[in-house]
Amino acid sequence: MKLSIHGARLIDPASGLDQIGDIHIDGGRIAALGAAPADFDAEQQIAAHGLIAAPGLVDLAVSLREPGYTRKGSIASETRAAAAGGVTSLCCPPQTKPVLDTTAVAELILDRAAAAGHARVFPIGALSKGLDGEQLAELVALRDAGCVAFANGLAPMANSRVLRRALEYAATFDLTVVFHSQDPDLAEGGLAHEGPTASFLGLPGIPETAETVALARNLLLVEQSGVRAHFSQLTSARGVEMIAAAQARGLPVSADVALYQLILTDEALAGFSSLYHVQPPLRSRGDRDALRAAVQSGVVQAIASHHQPHEADAKLAPFGATEPGISSVELLLPLALSLVEDGLLDLPTLLARLTCGPATALRLPAGQLAVGQNADLVLFDAQAQTLAGERWLSRGGNSPFLGHCLPGAVRYTLLGGRISHQA
Amino acid sequence: MTPTDAKRPLQLNDQGQLRHFLSLDGLPRELLTEILDTADSFLEVGARAVKKVPLLRGKTVCNVFFENSTRTRTTFELAAKRLSADVITLNVSTSSTSKGETLTDTLRNLEAMAADMFVVRHADSGAAHFIAEHVCPHVAVINGGDGRHAHPTQGMLDMLTIRRHKGSFENLSVAIVGDILHSRVARSNMLALKTLGCPDIRVIAPKSLLPVGVEQYGVRAYTDLAEGLKDVDVVIMLRLQRERMQGGLLPSEGEFYRLYGLTEQRLALAKPDAIVMHPGPINRGVEIESAVADGPQSVILNQVTYGIAIRMAVLSMAMSGQQTQRQLEQGDAQ
Q1: Is there a contact between B5 and A268 if contact means CB atoms under 8 Å apart?
Q2: A 297-326 residues with CB < 8 A to B
Q3: What H or E segment, with its residue span, contains residue A256?
Q4: Given CB atoms, is B211 within the 8 Å cutoff of chain A?
Q5: CATH code where residue A222 lies
Q6: In A122, A165, A268, A391, which residue has its Cα 20 to 30 A from B141's Cα atom?
Q7: How many domains does chain A have?
């Protein structure tokens, strides 16, 4: 099918393109930018004057909850929500039930994602069997089944020796390991950033050192093993400082932050609302400002939603008895645009952190608006507004942003030249 | 755009009266003084031959304890009975939750029994807030202790004890000694003392038992007991739980006593007329010497008596605040 999009402001952070123009799509790929190819006879036209056309967003952390937790979300429901947030490619973490540590689970996820057809799904496999930290999962078989990287989440590897060997094995086959750096002993029992707010509320704290101690060990073992590494969900100023220092030393590590960590701080916990219960925790204002600066400088090259949908009951209890996480992918673009509105980032830089930044971190074939690439696009109106929750597709209603008026509105999301979301 | 939770006065009605009693945070000095004055008047009831007033006649007070307690539970029971309420007490830690019933389901069942007031103790910080937000609006919720967060009736009975022995708060030095980190009593006492105008509040503990940022309460932190006790008017000792010996917080009860135990010798550093308080139950020989606990400066048993009066004050004030709120809302509706 042939499709032409007319008059949009085209922004491709990967190439630096930023101009008004047309996009012509043929066979699911971008056939031309600007003038149509000779004899191009579009069957469908989208008048996109006043809209911005960017590569479809690439989200490195979207919990799809399937298999195993379909009361919280399904592959169909959460990829559909992702399309509404402007996302066309996403990675799903291995915390499913059963854990994503066999090719059967990887295949199930990929099959159901393909059947749903709302987004390209790139699974992240478990680094250890059952995420138990003891025995390696079959990493190469999982890679061949479609896993793009490996992680153990917040579940620790048994000890530094096991982690070291896992990294050496992964390095052998040029596999990428995704780290969620939080020392389980320092974080044990913790519910909130250790600081004045947690002290006042009587919530057990998670010190900043829970992140930095684990990060220091992980960085040293990455350096020793030479494995490709991505550091996910950084939360602290000291943490991004350590990543910056490693990069300055020439260690090729990449990093992402959760979008909500760029907006919220631990002060939001003041009313004990379980909507702000996340792991790792929301930290101080100083930490948030340092994360913002790291996103701006590029030390942190990706912003991810770290979407974790929950059923209502999971959040309906005293703070400490609730499950952590925010349902966030559906608002990815408008919530991210609030950073532009607040003057923290310019639009092309923000889009880089949401497209080519994450794509290159995990070597995903996505995140570019260029001839020959998949026609994965988001068309949005930067002047319009989104009333969060006016329409809600995720199965998890656990978003503290519902009811907020956010800047920008996704008008179309296109996946392989086909409209996957329209508003 | 930076969304934050609007801090609404959950525990006050539209006229600024108590309708729940969850925490001392955000309560004005006048309200705390009103609680103390009301409790003073109820102390007289406790001294009568017939110890009852009809303020809560026909009302049902439900004590729901998700965590063990003897003193707090029985004094709440007595307080409600002296106000002529019907009282039921549930130890939920041993019943429903072990059968898998959720907290909200347990509360819905109690609401269905037409309870007018819940007194709740729970091991999770914020549990009383959660319950107040989720019960039907006319039910008053009184926090009998939530996790490490707050124990506001204990805080107020401690204030009543201090006021009755020292007259006022304006020129006092008060030291709180022991496990500040895990103590809801310490948090409520610090807030109450600050609000009531106490100019010198000290907390004394090793760093492993001091919360990060304790200075936000307007207190000074000491790690040396002798230094912290110097010339104070009031010493509040906290209970040290056995489990604090695990996980590296403290080496042993013996070493804690050696460094932070209140002995006669150390008490001599305080003012000669200083009073000694403790929320109980006391650990003799761990945080306090028997000679001090049973000595002339100890007001530990007075605290128990005052606790009943404070709880009568809070129960009656919250019930009245709820009724006023209902009348206001009915007035609006008409």
Answers
A1: yes
A2: 313, 316-321
A3: strand A254-258
A4: yes
A5: 3.20.20.140
A6: A268
A7: 2
Residue A111 at interface with chain B, using a CB cutoff of 8 Å: no
Assess B134–A contact: CB distance below 8 Å, yes or no.
yes
Q: Tell me whether B166 touches chain A (CB under 8 Å).
A: no
Whether B149 has its CB under 8 Å from any CB of chain A: the answer is yes
pLDDT at A228 over 70: yes
Question: Which CATH number fits the domain that encloses residue A7?
Answer: 2.30.40.10
User: Which residues, given as ranges, of chain B have pLDDT below 50?
Assistant: 1-7
Q: Inter-chain contact B3–A205, Cβ cutoff 8 Å? A: no
Domain assignment of residue B291, yes or no: yes
Residues of B in contact with A407 (CB under 8 A): 1
Residues A102 and A9 in one domain: no
Please check whether residue A369 lies inside any domain of the structure. no
Q: Answer for the pair A256, A304: CB distance below 8 angstroms, yes or no.
A: yes
Q: Is the peptide bond before A67 cis (omega within 30 degrees of 0)?
A: yes
Residue type, A13: P
Specify the number of domains making up chain B.
Answer: 2
Residue A369, Cβ neighbours under 10 Å: how many? 26
Domain that holds residue A298: 55-361
- Structure pTM? 0.94
Query: Does residue B254 lie within any of the structural domains?
Result: yes
* Cα A11 to the center of its chain, rounded Å: 20
- Chain B environment of A341 (Cβ under 8 Å): 1
Q: Decide if A387 touches B, using CB distance below 8 A.
A: no
- Is there a single domain that holds both residue B75 and residue B214? no
Same domain, A199 and A305: yes
pLDDT in tens, A315-373: 999 999 999 999 999 999 999 999 999 999 999 999 999 999 999 999 999 999 999 99
In DSSP notation, A185-217 reads HHHTT--EETTHHHHHHTPPEE-HHHHHHHHHH
Binding-site residues of B: 71-72, 99, 121, 151, 154, 184, 239, 280-281
Are residue A115 and residue A211 in the same domain, yes or no? yes
Tell me whether residues B124 and A271 touch, CB distance under 8 A.
Answer: no
- CB distance A267–B184 less than 8 Å? no
Instruction: Give yes or no: residues B117 and B168 share one domain.
Output: no
Q: Summarize pLDDT for A242-300 with one digit per residue, the tens.
A: 999 999 999 999 999 999 999 999 999 999 999 999 999 999 999 999 999 999 999 99
Q: Domain residues for B165?
A: 152-302
Cβ separation A268–B216 shorter than 8 A: no
> How far away is chain A from the Cα of B235, in angstroms, using its nearest Cα?
22
Neighbour-count burial for A228-247, b at 16+ CB within 10 Å, e otherwise: bbbbbbbbbbbbbebbbebb
In a domain, A368, yes or no: no
A367 assigned to some structural domain: no
